[in-house]
Design goal:
This protein is α/β, with parallel strands linked by helices. Helices cover 40% and strands 12% of the residues. The chain is built from 14 helices and 13 strands. It has an 8-stranded mixed β-sheet with strand order 3-2-1-4-5-6-7-8, sandwiched between helices. 44% of the residues are buried.
Length: 442
C-alpha cells in the first residue's frame, strides 16, 4: 500500500472523504443520497444546468428523492450540486454515472464516459479514487478510462485508484435502494479494489468483490441480457398463444406455482428503461469485435423490438371490429413511463407506440400521473402535449384506450366502465368483472 492509499483509506474510515458523483440522474442522485446519509460530504456534478439549479433550490426531479431530504442535506452542507467540472479536484472519490447510449448503428456510444474521464484527467491528483458505474462492455474501464487518466503521468494503484462498480438501481421498487442492493466491485489492480471496496462498505450493506474490472462489467451485462432473453421468450409465446386462443397470462400464473426451476417473466408492449433494451447490444457489439456470433441475444432483441408494432396491429384489429380505422381515431395512451409507479420515461415503449399510431393518422393523447408533460425524446419527435385528466368525460371521448403502463393508482374498473374500447398490453384489467366485452388483450 502507498502513502496515498493509506491517506485515502483513513479519510474513508473517518468519513471525511469528499464523494463526487458525475451524472445526477436516476443512478447518480440515489448514490449521492446513500453516501450523504452516512455522513459523507458529497458533490454532485452534471452538465445540465437546469438540473443543478433545481437541486440547489432544494427541488428534486426524481420521485423517490424527496425535497425534504435535499433541503436537509443542503442545509447541513453534506450535498451541493454544480456544473463546474473544475471542482472535480475537490473530491477524494469520483463516481461516474453518465449515460452510455447506443449509436444509430447500435454500437456503444462512450462519448459521455470519455468526456468525463478527460475532465477528471485535467485535475487528477494523488490520492483520488475513480469508479466507473455506467453500464458498458467488458474492457471499458481498462481500455478506455485508464489510458486517459494515465496521460497525467500519475501511476494507477499507487498515486490514484481506478475501479468499476455497476449500478443496480430499480426505480419504483420500495424494497431496494442504493444502500441495500449488493454492490459488485472490480478493481484495475488489488490496491484499487481494496480502496473502492472500503468506500462502498461505508454506504451499502454488502459489497461483492470480483477479481478484476472486466468481471464486474460483464456481471451487469449478464444480469440484463438474462432478463432481455427471458422477456423475449414470453413475448414470442404471447404472439403464438394469442393465435391459438390461449391466455399467456393464465399460463404464466399456472407455471409459477412450480416451487423450483421456473421464474416468471411477463410480456408487454416492448422493453423500457435504460438497461434492458440497451445492454444486450453492448454484448453483441463486443462479440462482433471478436468475430463471434451472438444469434440468441440478437434474436431476443429483434423479438422485443417488434412488440410495439404487434400491439399497434392488435389495436387496429380491435378498432376494425367496431368498424373504425386507425386513421382519425382518438386514441388515449395510459402510461408513458417505462414501468409502473415511476417518473422515468427512458426507452419507454409508449413513445414507439405513439410514433407508429401517429404515422397511421391517429389522434393521440395520453395520461400519466407521474409524467405531466410529454418529454422530448431523441428518437421520437412527437409533438409536445400534457397529460390529460383521467375523467369519465375524457375516457368517453376516446375511440380506444391503450393501456401501456399499469400504474397502481389507476382505477381499472373506472377506466373500463367509461371507455368505449380498451386494449390492454399489461393484463391490468384482469380483475375487472363488468363490461369485459370492451376489453381486448394485446
Amino acid at each position: 500500500m502507498s502513502v496515498h492509499s493509506d491517506s485515502l483509506h483513513q479519510k474513508i474510515v473517518d468519513r471525511t472523504a469528499v464523494v463526487g458523483v458525475v451524472g445526477l440522474g436516476y443512478v447518480g442522485l440515489p448514490l449521492v443520497k446513500a453516501f450523504a446519509d452516512q455522513g459523507f460530504t458529497t458533490i454532485g456534478f452534471d452538465v445540465d444546468q437546469s438540473k443543478v439549479d433545481l437541486l440547489a433550490a432544494g427541488k428534486s426531479y426524481i420521485e423517490h428523492i424527496g425535497d425534504s431530504w435535499l433541503a436537509a442535506h443542503l442545509e447541513a452542507g453534506r450535498f451541493q450540486a454544480t456544473s463546474n467540472l473544475d471542482r472535480l479536484a475537490e473530491a477524494d472519490a469520483i463516481l461516474i454515472c453518465v449515460p452510455t447510449p447506443l449509436s444509430s448503428s447500435r454500437d456503444p456510444d462512450l462519448t459521455y464516459v470519455l468526456a468525463t474521464a478527460e475532465s477528471i484527467g485535467k485535475s487528477l491528483r494523488p490520492g483520488q479514487l475513480v469508479v466507473l458505474e455506467s453500464t458498458t462492455y467488458p474492457g471499458t474501464t481498462r481500455e478506455v478510462v485508464l489510458p486517459v487518466l494515465a496521460k497525467t503521468g500519475l501511476a494507477c494503484g499507487s498515486d490514484f485508484f481506478l475501479a468499476y462498480s455497476p449500478e443496480r438501481e430499480d426505480p419504483g421498487n420500495a424494497d431496494y435502494s442504493a444502500n441495500n442492493i449488493p454492490k459488485v466491485v472490480g478493481g484495475i489492480d488489488e490496491p484499487s479494489l481494496t480502496i473502492a471496496r472500503q468506500l462502498y462498505d461505508q454506504a451499502v450493506d454488502t459489497t461483492v468483490a470480483t477479481s478484476n474490472c472486466e468481471v464486474a462489467e460483464a456481471c451487469k451485462i449478464l444480469e440484463n441480457t438474462y432478463r432481455s432473453v427471458n422477456i423475449a421468450m414470453v413475448n414470442e409465446l404471447k404472439t403464438l398463444f394469442d393465435r391459438i386462443g390461449i391466455d399467456i397470462w393464465e399460463v404464466i400464473e399456472a407455471a409459477k406455482t412450480k416451487p423450483f426451476g421456473f421464474q416468471p417473466f411477463y410480456p408487454g408492449p416492448g422493453l423500457g428503461g435504460h438497461c434492458i433494451p440497451i445492454d444486450p447490444f453492448y454484448l453483441s457489439w463486443l462479440a462482433r469485435n471478436h468475430e463471434m456470433p451472438t444469434r440468441f441475444i440478437e434474436l431476443a432483441g429483434e423479438i422485443n423490438s417488434s412488440m410495439p408494432l404487434y400491439v399497434v396491429n392488435r389495436l387496429a384489429e380491435a378498432l376494425n371490429e367496431v368498424g373504425r380505422p386507425v386513421q382519425g381515431s382518438r386514441i388515449a395512451i395510459l402510461g408513458v413511463a417505462y414501468k409502473p409507479d415511476v417518473d422515468d420515461p427512458r426507452e419507454s415503449p409508449s413513445f414507439k407506440l405513439m410514433m407508429l399510431l401517429g404515422e397511421r393518422g391517429a389522434e393521440l393523447s395520453y395520461n400519466d400521473p407521474f409524467i405531466p408533460v410529454l418529454p422530448s425524446m431523441r428518437h421520437y419527435p412527437l409533438p409536445p402535449q400534457q397529460s390529460q385528466p383521467l375523467t369519465a368525460e375524457y375516457l368517453q371521448s376516446q375511440d380506444v384506450v391503450l393501456i401501456a403502463t399499469d400504474h397502481s393508482c389507476y382505477d381499472w374498473d373506472f377506466v373500463v366502465e367509461h371507455a368505449q374500447l380498451v386494449v390492454d398490453t399489461r393484463n391490468a384489467t384482469r380483475n375487472v368483472l363488468m363490461h369485459r366485452d370492451k376489453i381486448r388483450k394485446a
